[in-house]
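User: Structure please.
Assistant: Input sequence and predicted structure:
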Amino acid sequence: MKVYPTPTALCLAGLLAALAVPGVRAANPPRDDRAAPNAVIRPQDMADALRDVVNANRSIYTRLVVERLQNQEKVIKASDNWEKEKALINPCEKLRLAAEAIQTKGAEFSYTLRATAPIVRRNSPQTEIERLGLEAVSRHPDTNYYARETLGGRRYLTAVYADKALSTACVECHNAHPQSPKKDWRVGDVMGALVIRVALEF
């Protein structure tokens, strides 16, 4: 039986082809309604490509926005009124808000951050697969963790990628935060994991 990509997968495939993300074969759009796509994207390829897009976006935001403002001393330091006084949204919060926004568009994938020493409880592993994946990538950051799980009656490929401290902005924020359970982060440390889920049934 031939498997055809969903409209969401086809749209993402076109985007990835345009961005020339390595290792992903994009389906050519059909010339008319009767033509069939001639390639299929594996769920793991899609998850890996999403990881590249999410990480690139966060890295650019960290370097070109957060670090520049910190260098200009425009980011207010940690204090008793941390949440009220933050001068701009941090990269982790930006990722969370973007992930929530994409879900309102009916995406057949999702992504989130999970932390080894979470400042906010919601960033702790929420499923057994997330826990196992976080443990695996914490021990072996260069090896991704893939598993299948069923949530809400639907099957997903769950991909877990090591999330390392990108820059001094990351470690300074986490080390200074009054609710942080760990105060000695260094650049390059594995701070948690990026978890991406791709639906396997529609």
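Confidence is low (pLDDT under 50) at residues 1-33, 74-82.
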